[in-house]
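Hey,
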Amino acid sequence: MSHVYVLTNQHQQFLSKSGEWLDGREPNKLFRSEHKDVAINQMFEANTRDVSLRIELLQCALNIKAQPSIPEEALGEQSAPPGDPEVEPGAPEEMPPEEPPELEPQPQPEVTPEQAPEVPPTQAPDETPAQPGEHKSESESAA
């Protein structure tokens, strides 16, 4: 094994063994794999957790301690202070809107309930239905 694969993002940070993004100056803490397919799977998993990252594979030679030797051009500047890597230094802070519209209660229109219509009581039918077993013959119904 003469080289390993490490993962880097667009902020020149490197994926650690614990899944955090580090500056890469401590190679013993970095995720590394001698197999490209394992590194690609890890890249997919890391990108699933944060889809805004642009992750790349970086092939690195090993030093005498069998740790990845990260090229200086890949390291970038000294580590940034912890925080949101998407916010550039010197950028103005985002201000929340003065009055969020969802916090303003809207008065509900007053609706007077309609009175239920009066329903006359049901009247009993003039005839009672025939009970089972009661069959009228034609001679009885004519009488």
